[in-house]
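Researcher: Can you fold this with 2-acetamido-2-deoxy-beta-D-glucopyranose in place?
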Amino acid sequence: MKFFSTLQAFAVIALGTAFLSAAAPVSSSEIQEKSSQGLRLLSLADGADPVWKTEEEKLDLQRQEAHFFDVTETYELEQSLPKKKAAAVTFPSPSHQSAVKSLLTTVSVSNMQTNLASLTAFNNRYYRSSTGRDASQYILDTVKKIAASRSDITVSSFTHSWTQFSIIAKIPGKTSGPVTILGAHMDSINLSNPTSGRAPGADDDGTGTVNLIEAFRVLLAADFKPTTPVEFHWYSGEEAGLLGSQAIATKYKSDGVQVKAFMELDMSGYFTPGTKEVFALQADYIDTGLNTFLKSLITTYSAFGWAMDDPCGYACSDHASWNKMGYPASFPYEAITGDDNPNVHSATDTTSVKGFSWTHSIEFAKLAVAFVYEMAI
Ligand SMILES: *[C@@H]1O[C@H](CO)[C@@H](O)[C@H](O)[C@H]1NC(C)=O
């Protein structure tokens, strides 16, 4: 995540114009041939045909703060799925205030600090580096340990063609569905030197990652047994074009999984000192009914309010992978764009920068707990 650049706006307009007449779909043999040459198939704008880029060109796009889906590995499955848009959804207002408020008193900063210290100690969590792999193993072990007391809960790795894996923890419901999903991405990137450069990724997305671990811990400590199932996802390869979340969201769609709601936490630990603290709600590629639900959750349970963020545009974070599959998705962000963390994708994304705040971040872990409880109990 997550920048909106003027350059990107121009790119979108240019692409929109260039690709108005749809070309034939990319064939299976073309995908096989080009990807075996190391090329990547990127979707750069809504409705535009995807384009082939080298890894170096792809990295240059990232350095220009362009957003895209890397669809090399999901394009064919996606093409085979029905294109039907999801109907608008509505959700009831929060109605379990005493139970939720009591749960929220047990959300702890110290667990998040411990986990974030471990995650930032890896040189980077790049999706194709060995330390990126080690980081996914650390999260898997940590989440498994939390779930150890409950034989009904499964925690598993979701492997990819690259080295770092994604993770899915499932809390079964008393009924089979639909499922409520929380997501965060585990990978980090140093844009000047992805493979071996330092990328602590404290905020992007260490904070979202540990917020979800803490929400999971709090719910299990209270022996949470929902009516409808709940899943926690930690994604690999978000920084490389939303790879992990696309692999999982397209698989869920193709398997016919019903998803009640998806919420992404990607950066929750920073706001520009002196500005008003808010949950900045993503305004595009989201479900407005789900945003209405989020607003009422925030008003009911949070220490500060919400504000609508400026539209981030295409393929900003993992919520976009779920939105693309027609599932209701949402994304509360740490601050209005411009008041958010300027240190991302670099060696200086640490907890010691001025503006990093655990009392800010903990509100997102609490929101995750409230979201799951009110949605699924
Ligand atoms: C990337 O990593 C190198 C080596 O660790 C570091 O010197 C450099 O500052 C990093 N790049 C950025 C953009 O932070």
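Model: Folded with 2-acetamido-2-deoxy-beta-D-glucopyranose in place. Residues 250 and 317 are 15 Å apart (CA to CA).
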